[in-house]
Amino acid sequence: MERIRKHHLFWPVLVLVALLVFNLLYDPDFFRIQVRDGTLYGNLIDILFFGSPLALVALGMTLVIATRGIDLSVGSVVAISAAIACFTISKGTDQNDPGLVATAVLLALAASALLGLWNGFLVTRVGIQPIVATLILMVAGRGIAQLITSGQIITVISPNYKVIGAGTLLTLPVSVYIVALVFALAALLTRKTALGLFIESVGCNPTASRLAGIRSVTVRLFAYLFCGFCAGLAGIILSSNVSSADGNNAGLWYELDAILAVVIGGTSLNGGRFFLTGTLLGVLIIQTLTTTIYSTGVPPEVTLVVKALVVLAVCLIQSEGFRRTLARSLVSARQPRQQAEGKVTTRG
Amino acid sequence: MQERKPLLVMSDIHKAFPGVQALSGVHFRLFPGEIHALMGENGAGKSTLIKVLTGVYPADRGEIRLEGRVIQPHSPLEAQMLGISTVYQEVNLCPNLSVAENILIGREPRRFGRIRWKAMNEEARRLLEERLNLRIDVTQPLGAYSVAIQQLVAIARALNISAKVLILDEPTSSLDRGEAEQLFSVMRKLREDGLAILFVTHFLDQVYEVSDRITVLRNGRLIGEHLTEHLPRLELVAQMIGKELKELEEMPKEEGLTADAAEKTLEAVGVGRKGSIEPFDLEIGKGEIVGMAGLLGSGRTEAARLLFGADRADQGRFVMSGEETVIHSPRQAIDRGIAFCSENRKTEGIIDELSVRENIIAALQASQGWFRALGRKRQEELADEYIRALNIYPPNPEIPVKNLSGGNQQKVLLARWLLTHPKLLILDEPTRGIDVGAKAEIQKLILSLAREGMSVLFISSELEEVLRISHRIAVMRDRRKVSEIAGEDISRERVMKAIAGG
Q1: CB–CB of A194 and B349 under 8 A?
Q2: Is residue A18 part of a domain?
Q3: Over B426-490, what HEC string results?
Q4: Contact list, B358 vs chain A (CB under 8 Å)
Q5: pLDDT digit string (tens) for A185-229?
Q6: Rounded to a whole number, what is the distance in Å from the CA of B355 to chain A's nearest CA?
Q7: Fewer beta carbons below 10 Å: N end or C end of chain B?
């Protein structure tokens, strides 16, 4: 029991379970999954489906945060990637041409990876603090996306492109497979090569890592590049789902939700140890919370406040110091009563 | 200078921290118009004494009298209001504010709540010129000036009207020769103005250059207070290190300390770095242990960092096994077979959140690159092997390295480097802060490594240690290599004389 409680995923899992249990009590239908035309439907599927772009962005963010950095530009990269993909497709004569769709996707991904590299360059070579370096692209990126779309919302009619973000495969949304693939890729890269060790080492103690011969510049460059790539993929899914690219609103505030997911997942903003599975749990918690708020009919004008309160509670419950203080104050609030009753139990 | 009434008297000061008696019964006096040097090696109690004086820590026992009145400052701010100002080693001002703002922040001349910029700049200019003989543009941001000027600005800030005592805590450690001179002339001027100056430094030459009186601490005890002119250098070093001059006789040497030094592992020729260390030559032969002796801050670490590429040498050249080579980064040094254990185990050595296993394989994995990853099983084998070989306790490769004791962390770092099979192992204070048993183990290990043909550069503050295991000893003083003593000539007295200089 003690070992389970000490496990780094204990609290995220507990929070997720608590959220689901709440939903079960509130509305047993929450868990109902229907099969229609060979496709699964239901709230749980929705959570996976709507959470997938955020999951991609958060996976990339995890590696960046592990190196003691942060990437605020992911939301803008999402918009740029969406704009590039839709723009490329919209210029084609046959928008449904598989070759054209593939080109568009590859172009968008390459550009996103390049933008990630740019962030990494600013951080490692120019020496700008990560929060400032990526703020540059966060602000400029929306402008770039608008330049590509000429300030319009580009709409494409391409069933082949739509498959990525709205299609299904073996009863599940395609985007869920994409997340699984990227997660496997990230896990493989970091746990089967030495990259994970290097990332954690650089994030934990940059000076000692340098003296141990670890090329911290390359390691950090890779983290930003991967983060850009993931954001680009998220942009493709988002734009494919709605068959359009909106430079202004695509991926808006994604950076904040992604950072939140990483933190809920147990990776410290101070860098070092990182937990990809924890990040996925963080995403699921955020997405479940959003779905819960909608399905319980919280008035729209207070949804953000409710979300903020739950997030605050989640963060507090993960802090050992807070739990100890809470336990102590509960015990002391109880003590006088128990003494008055003349018995002392050990339950705290 | 005849005896006058001291301005400040600290008597019978005791201060304990959990597990260590930092100060026991220390007496200390400061006279007006005098520069008083406080000397002692690491852990002697200098900084604790200063922190008690400036109200950072309360003393457990003892009293402080300023101009005859008992004072009990509870914070540096209170101490400053009483007239005791401190300038720390690292300049803690705001580099992006102007010089004038830095000097007068918190006491700006105001009118109706608005700052009178002109008056403020004027006042800052006057203060710098009259008290420090310094003429600079006070409207420029502080960061635009050299560290030396920043140091002087820090002093100006400390010198408010009521300052009677000025404490300078290693003010010269990041200054070059000329900059230090400038600081000294300011210190002499302030002395003439009647200030009592407490000066902490590791540079012996500087002590003899500016100070009038010297107090020596060792292991939290007062060893002596002397007028500088009455205390020969060798005597000062003896007091600091804790060996009486009479004890300076030859000790029996270890057996088997004859290395075949014909084959050179590394030759450094005229290697130096401005503001860090003067150019020096150093050769290390195959299977040879070269000891590096000198007081703290004498340039030992700086020299080692150049050899490892941790700092880049801006002059000189390296020859390895007869071939000219460059060492620009730790990465390059490691590729050429050099390993370096830093003296700052916590900040530059261990990667504290990672496990013992990960710490042990870090350097080997780094030199193999990303894709030739050591398998988990291979990692465990290596970790187990070295945990056993070096007696690392607890023998559990999976616990975070930060949970280990200092000595065991040191062994983890040794394991990290031994795994890479270096040709040259640079050890900077490998035995600092670890217990006697672990110390002996590490010394034995170094000797056996050298017997197997590894070259070792061994840096230590403990002269005994250096004498016991070195074939040759390079002595550093005031950021210069001042002498090299080999073979039969190695004796405690020779080395101490070289350390003291004079």
Answers
A1: no
A2: yes
A3: EEECCCCCCCHHHHHHHHHHHHHHHHCCCEEEEECCCHHHHHHHCCEEEEEECCEEEEEEEHHHC
A4: 197, 200-201
A5: 999 999 889 999 999 999 999 999 999 999 999 999 999 999 999
A6: 11
A7: N
What is the DSSP code string of B342-386? Answer: -S-IIIII--TTSBHHHHHHHHHHHHH-SSSPPPHHHHHHHHHHH
Residue A310 lies in a domain: no
The answer to whether residue B261 sits within a structural domain is no
CATH number for the domain that contains residue A162: 1.10.3470
pLDDT of B252 reads 40
How far off is chain A from B346, nearest CA to CA, in Å?
Answer: 9
HSE of B157, CA atoms in CB hemisphere, 13 A: 27
Question: In 3D, which of B329, B384, B333 has the Cα closest to residue B360?
Answer: B384
Instruction: Quote the domain boundaries for residue A154.
Output: 2-297
Query: Which band of pLDDT confidence, cut at 50, 70 and 90, is reported for residue B462?
Result: confident
Measured between alpha carbons, how far is A35 from A22 in angstroms, rounded to an integer?
A: 24
Q: What is the pLDDT of residues B427-436, one digit of tens each?
A: 998 877 666 6
Q: Cβ contacts of residue B478 below 8 Å, gap of 6+?
A: B203, B204, B205, B206, B298, B299, B501
Comparing CA positions, the residue from B282, B286, B289, B324 lying closest to residue B306 is B282
pLDDT at residue A77 in the model = 97
Does residue A273 lie within any of the structural domains?
yes
Q: Considering only the beta carbons, identify the residue of B354, B373, B416 that sits closest to A193.
A: B373
Length of chain A: 348
* Residues of chain A with C-beta less than 8 angstroms from the C-beta of B348: 207-208, 211
* Residue of B370, B374, B377, B410 to mutate, interface with A, max A Cβ within 10 Å: B370
- φ and ψ at A288, to 5 degrees? -60, -40
Q: How far apart are CA B147 and CA B173, in angstroms?
A: 10
**Domain span at B395:** 349-421
User: Among all residues of chain B, which has the CA nearest to that of A270?
Assistant: B353
Q: In chain A, which stretches have pLDDT less than 50?
A: 339-348
Does residue B193 carry a pLDDT above 80? Answer: yes
Say whether the ipTM exceeds 0.90: no
Contact residues, chain B, for A212 at CB < 8 Å: 330, 351, 362-363, 366, 416
Q: What CATH number has the domain bearing residue B218?
A: 3.40.50.300
Report the pLDDT value the prediction gives residue A212, as an integer from 0 to 100.
Answer: 93
pLDDT in tens, B234-281: 888 888 877 554 443 333 444 444 555 568 899 999 999 988 899 999
What average pLDDT does this structure show over B319-345? 91
Tokens of B112: 């109706």
By C-alpha distance, the chain B residue nearest A197 is B358
| A-chain residues near B368 (CB < 8 A) | 194
Count Cβ atoms below 10 Å from residue B58 Cβ, excluding itself: 11
Instruction: Judge: A213–B330 Cβ closer than 8 Å, yes or no.
Output: yes
Strand-pair partners of B355 = B400
Gap between the Cα atoms of A280 and A183, Å rounded: 9
Nearest CA in chain B to A196: B370
Total domains in the fold of chain B: 2
DSSP classification of residue B30: E
Q: Which residues contact A332 (CB under 8 A, 6 or more apart)?
A: none
Amino acid at B149: I
Q: Based on the fold, state whether residues B217 and B354 are members of the same structural domain.
A: no
List the one residue out of B284, B289, B291, B281 whose CA is nearest residue B264: B284
Q: Kindly tell me if the per-residue pLDDT of B481 is higher than 80.
A: yes
Q: Quickly state the pLDDT bin for B204 (edges 50, 70, 90).
A: confident
What does the alpha-carbon distance between residue A348 and residue B83 come to, in Å, rounded to a whole number? Answer: 53
In a domain, B109, yes or no: yes
The CA-based dihedral angle spanning residues B4, B8, B9, B14, taken in that order and rounded to the nearest 10 degrees: -160
Q: What are phi and psi of B483, to 5 degrees?
A: -165, 165
DSSP for A63-113 reads HHHHTT---TTHHHHHHHHHHHHHHHHHTSSSTT-HHHHHHHHHHHHHHHH
